[in-house]
Amino acid sequence: MENLPLVTFAFISVLGMAVPGPDVVLAITNGSRYGIRHAFFGMAGVVLSDIVLICMVALGFGALLVASEFYLSAVRMVGAFYLLFIAIGALRSSTGSRHAFDPGFPDKAHSTKALMVRCFVVAVTNPEAWLFFPAVLPPFVDSNEPIAMQYAVLAIIIAAADVFVLMLYATLGSRAARLLAGPNAVWIDRLYGIALLGLSSVLILQSLGHL
C-alpha cells in the first residue's frame, strides 16, 4: 500500500462515518446523557463492530452477504427492529422528568457495558456498513503484499476515523445538553427517539422492497 491510497482511504473513512446514521445518533445522545468521557464506551462498541466486519470482509464473507439479497435484508430487518426497540424506550423515558446528563453513570458498571453492547449491536447490524466495507476495502489491498497486515492497517485507520468523527458528534450532544438543561432535557430523548424511529422505518421499508 502506498501513502497516497492510505490518505485517500482515511478521507473516505471519515466521510463514511460523518454521514448521519444510527451511530451518529447514538454518539450525540450518549454525549448529551453521560458526557464526552463516557461516550467513549459507545465508540468502543462501534470500533469493535467495524473490526468484526473487516474480518468478515477479509475472510470473504462480506461479499457473499452483499451478493445475497435475502441475507442482506435479514441483517437490515434485525437492525431495524433493534433500532425500533431503542426508539420506543427513548420515547417512553422522555415522558418522565429526568435530567439529560446523568452524573451517576460512572458508578453503574452494568450501564457502561450496556452502552458498549448497544452501540456494537446497532453498528454491526447497520446494512450500510455491510455495503461500505466490501466495496471500499478491497481496492486498497495489494494481493502481492501480506494481506493480514494490510487489513490490520486499514482497521486502525477506520478505528481512528470512528473515534474522531463520533467524538465531534458526542461533543455536539454534550453542548446541546447544557442548552436543554432542566425540564427541557426530555426533548433530547424525544428527538433521539424520533430520529431512531425514522431510521428504523426506512430500514423496514427497504427490507420489504418499498424503497
UniProtKB/TrEMBL annotation:
Any one Pfam family match given in the protein's UniProt record, by short name: LysE
Transmembrane segments: 6-28, 40-64, 70-91, 115-137, 149-170, 191-209
Signal peptide: none
Membrane topology: Multi-pass membrane protein
Name of the featured protein: Threonine/homoserine/homoserine lactone efflux protein
Organism: Rhizobium loti
Gene Ontology, cellular component aspect: plasma membrane
Organism placement in taxonomy: Bacteria, Pseudomonadati, Pseudomonadota, Alphaproteobacteria, Hyphomicrobiales
Compartments (UniProt record): Cell membrane
Keyword entries, A-Z: Cell membrane, Membrane, Transmembrane, Transmembrane helix
A GO molecular-function descriptor: amino acid transmembrane transporter activity
Source organism superkingdom: Bacteria
